[in-house]
Design a protein that fits this description.
Protein name: Magnesium chelatase
Number of helices: 13
CATH architecture of the largest domain: 3-Layer(aba) Sandwich
Strand content: 5-15%
CATH superfamily of the largest domain: P-loop containing nucleotide triphosphate hydrolases
Pfam families: AAA_5, AAA_lid_2
Helix content: 40-55%
Largest sheet: 5 strands, parallel
Strand order of the largest sheet: 2-5-8-1-9
Structural class: alpha/beta
Shape: globular
Radius of gyration: 21 Å
Length: about 300
């Protein structure tokens, strides 16, 4: 697997994944972009760096029983009712505590809604054969990817994701060349017993993991001023967000970013830098059936609210 530190670009997705790792309460990450933009590669590289394994992955076409759990068929054939663990429970028990859903926009809305409910509440309600039970502490971070060319998610489902990262192909010849050279060199040296190139990448991965683990331990101690909370609330009002999930995600994400950078307090700049992934999907829908693109005008609105000195 390509080491995390060798991923070229993808800053928005990488930052979103790191924030969600440090502060799971942010509410998961949705990566949206066209095919071939290394969304899955980045997610797998991140979890390999963080916990040395791939995330639990929900395949396209998964059935209810595969997701929620069902019955052990061999046991049923012998007259015994033994429940089989579903992917949601596996994700909660995994080292990464992450469920990865590729092409989540192609999944049935019913299943998406259940997955988002469990991810936000940590409770998996089950009802079968006239028997009801609630499995508790089923807690995991949901990471989904989607190609907007293949359809979107309903607004109610989009809003349930904490952060949305827009993933695009690298625009410059230099970056594209760097991607090709990095991948080809990794493929050529990954079987070499003493590759300095890969050893250095793994060393940087270890350093990044240590930084994120430290941030995860101290994020609750990072302080914030009333002024910063007020700015988050004003941003939510300025962007006409429905409900209050948007400003809560803003604060949690800004706090996690501050912890990652070793800051003692959340600043307006931390809020500014997480505004796009926290707000982009909570506004009006665009012509593509997903959500309106974030523009320079949106950046200016964020700066105007955060830099306002009238109060």
């Amino acid at each position: 697997m390509l080491p995390y530190s060798l991923i070229v670009g993808q800053e928005e997705l990488r930052t979103a994944l790191e924030i969600a790792y440090v502060s799971p309460g942010v509410g998961g990450v949705l990566a949206t972009g066209q095919r071939g933009t290394a969304k899955t590669t980045t997610v797998r590289a991140f979890t390999t760096m963080a916990v040395s394994e791939f995330p639990v992955t929900l395949p396209i076409g998964a059935t209810d029983d595969r997701v929620l759990g069902g019955w052990e068929i061999p046991e049923l054939m012998h007259g015994k009712s033994t429940r089989a663990e579903g992917l949601l429970e596996r994700a909660a028990r995994s080292a990464s505590r992450m469920l990865y859903v590729d092409e989540i926009n192609l999944l049935d809305d019913y299943l998406v809604n259940i997955i988002l409910d469990v991810a936000s509440t940590g409770v998996l309600p089950l009802e079968r054969d006239h028997h009801s039970e609630d499995l508790r502490n089923v807690e995991f971070t949901l990471v989904g990817t989607m190609n907007p060319d293949e359809g979107g998610l309903r607004p109610q489902l989009l809003d349930r994701f904490g952060l949305v990262a827009t993933v695009e192909s690298e625009a410059t010849d230099e970056q594209r060349q760097r991607i090709v050279e990095t991948v080809l060199r990794f493929e050529a040296e990954r079987e070499a017993p003493a590759s300095e190139f890969i050893a250095e990448a793994l060393r940087r991965d270890g350093e990044r993991k240590a930084t994120l683990d430290t941030a995860r331990e101290r994020v609750a101690t990072v302080r914030y001023d009333t002024d910063v909370v007020a700015r988050c609330a004003r941003l939510a009002q300025d962007f006409a967000l429905a409900g209050h999930r948007g400003e809560l995600v803003l604060m949690r994400a800004a706090r996690a970013l501050a912890a990652i950078e070793g800051a003692e307090r959340v600043s307006r700049d931390h809020v500014r830098r997480v505004a796009k992934p926290a707000l982009v999907h909570r506004r009006g829908r665009g012509d593509t059936g997903t959500f309106a693109a974030w523009t320079d005008q949106d950046d200016e609105r964020v700066r105007a609210v955060l830099d306002d000195r009238t109060d």
